[in-house]
Amino acid sequence: xxxxxxxxxxxxxxxxxxxxxxxxxxxxxxxxxxxxxxxxxxxxxxxxxxxxxxxxxxxxxxxxxxxxxxxxxxxxxxxxxxxxxxxxxxxxxxxxxxxxxxxxxxxxxxxxxxxxxxxxxxxxxxxxxxxxxxxxxxxxxxxxxxxxxxxxxxxxxxxxxxxxxxxxxxxxxxxxxxxxxxxxxxxxxxxxxxxxxxxxxxxxxxxxxxxxxxxxxxxxxxxxxxxxxxxxxxxxxxxxxxxxxxxxxxxxxxxxxxxxxxxxxxxxxxxxxxxxxxxxxxxxxxxxxxxxxxxxxxxxxxxxxxxxxxxxxxxxxxxxxxxxxxxxxxxxxxxxxxxxxxxxxxxxxxxxxxxxxxxxxxxxxxxxxxxxxxxxxxxxxxxxxxxxxxxxxxxxxxxxxxxxxxxxxxxxxxxxxxxxxxxxxxxxxxxxxxxxxxxxxxxxxxxxxxxxxx
Length: 454
Known about the structure:
Layout: H1 2-6, H2 12-15, H3 32-42, H4 46-53, H5 61-89, H6 93-96, H7 98-101, H8 107-140, H9 145-161, H10 164-192, H11 194-201, H12 210-228, H13 231-234, H14 243-272, H15 277-284, H16 288-322, H17 326-339, H18 350-379, H19 386-390, H20 401-416, H21 421-439
Helix pairs in contact: 3-10, 3-14, 3-16, 4-12, 4-14, 4-18, 5-12, 5-14, 5-18, 8-9, 8-15, 8-16, 8-17, 8-18, 9-16, 9-17, 10-14, 10-16, 11-14, 12-18, 15-16, 16-17, 18-20, 18-21, 20-21
């Protein structure tokens, strides 16, 4: 451990050339409670609602619950694996990528990480704006969704510009009532539609075959974006949050909200045929007060998820790849999220499409995870020279073709069995990266500090 600590300080001449937001974190602001709260608030995703809706007619309720649990445990372990680098050295995801892809090569995995985040940001902002618009309609008779959507997007970007200091208080507040509201929402769904739910699921036989494991991929896929940039979060965690403790925090935080959101999506869509949570809960809560509270919760949940998972990571990528300032990068992410036209994603048929979209991008993110894990744990034995990795003219200058080729081949393998895309990619990508680092002449210079260094 002494060798790791020695390399944490960034040389003054390098520090002057690097945006402060990309430099190694010195102030760790998130303890156990704050860190857990950030993931609990950050994982209340309407995307999970849609993934649950996509399981109708495929799995029984117990099978759906087990599929969600398996997906969440895999997520927790994967977050702990990738996040350890950021926790030890305080470096963000965009810089961590340099050791396996090179200073120039990081643009490829960065774009593959950033695009799904921007799509989800747009999708969840539209849903959240719909909830706020519903509240305005109930309370004031005001109804103008496009205007509400624009203002809601601006609000989230403004919160993100404040960085993790702003995110911390937001997530701490949100976790106080998230579980309570989710339990109540599930109770309302089960009592209001018990007959309809019983009728639908009485005809479902379920399966333990491919559809079951594909369901675990769908729930895992929602967070596969978050997994590979785990260092963006772990670099802010206090030193006592070691890997085992971190994995426990992730599980305790992610599993309950995923189960509730997924089950609510599954049951309410089965009963009503409607996969739009805003429309469903605006008509079924039984009172104006409960309707407003529930819709505000849906809107607030999108803020906590978007700020943590869908604005910060692509903003870091833009900063690293295009030398942008933090504030400019976050604004650009907001603009791009509008360009994906989220109003076309929130339709009656969106649940099946979002499942397919999740499985598709997971085919690219699984290989990136495999390369990063093999590079840091197997080849480098968790030892990085921070000054070296920040020096754009040093060891990691250019493109590490071993990493690029490995994720390309791994992604192709995944697309052959897209329903299990994330899982399928791991072993072929990891093995290929290991041997390419050993054999490719162009990758030899990236072997400094690895077991292949000569």
